[in-house]
Amino acid sequence: MNDFFTALALLTIAPVRFGEKISARAYAYFPLVGLLIGVVLVAAQFLLTRALPNLIAAALVVTLWGALTGALHLDGFSDACDGLFATTTRERRLEILRDVHLGAFGATGLILLLIVKFAAVASTTSFAPFWLAPILGRWAMVYAVTFPLARNEGMAALFRAGLTRRVVFAATLCTALVAALWGAFGVIAFGIAFGIATGIARLAQNRLGGLTGDIYGMICESVEVGVLILGGVTL
Fold this sequence. Notes:
- The chain is an all-alpha fold.
- The protein has one domain.
- Helices cover 76% and strands 0% of the residues.
- The chain has helices at 2-11, 30-51, 54-68, 72-85, 90-98, 104-123, 128-144, 154-160, 165-180, 183-208, 213-234.
- The longest helix is centred in the C-terminal third of the chain and has 26 residues, at 183-208.
- The protein is globular, with a radius of gyration of 17 Å.
- The N and C termini lie far apart (36 Å).
């Protein structure tokens, strides 16, 4: 259970405690944490859309979504935008990722992400995307860990140490089975998550030499938005 609580503490604002020793096995529980987030989002969507106008309900759901994670992945997304899209050297990009200040690319990317996420939530009439988006977003981070790191330090390096194929396989198998419960939508959503995660990981390899924790955050947020857009278009 310590591995589960580790994953829960890392990915949410839940006030849980875990042991001093951090194991890479915690990655196997990332999709489960996504499922728990999905439960909260579905409940919120159900209640808010019945009590408030659709646009206000959508804005509150997006706000809750960010709050549940302490805006961790949103912060990673904005930092990743600054690092990936700056016209400079690889070394300078890595320095930018360490900078706590928000740059033009990061601010623009974050605003656009939230606008698209809000529009997708407002356009979605099914609960399926609210279940799958958080699950696939966190599975995508597990998958992304299989790509090389840009530097051998930081939280990303800490958790990648000791990661086995068995952990990645377990997380992937469970996620695929859950996605399949939603039929064609779930299968397509899983494919979109895989494609988005692979595309961002390849971009990071090309521009940074590998991935960082901020890139993981970008992958999670991008996958969530991709699944939401799919839901708004097809459901």
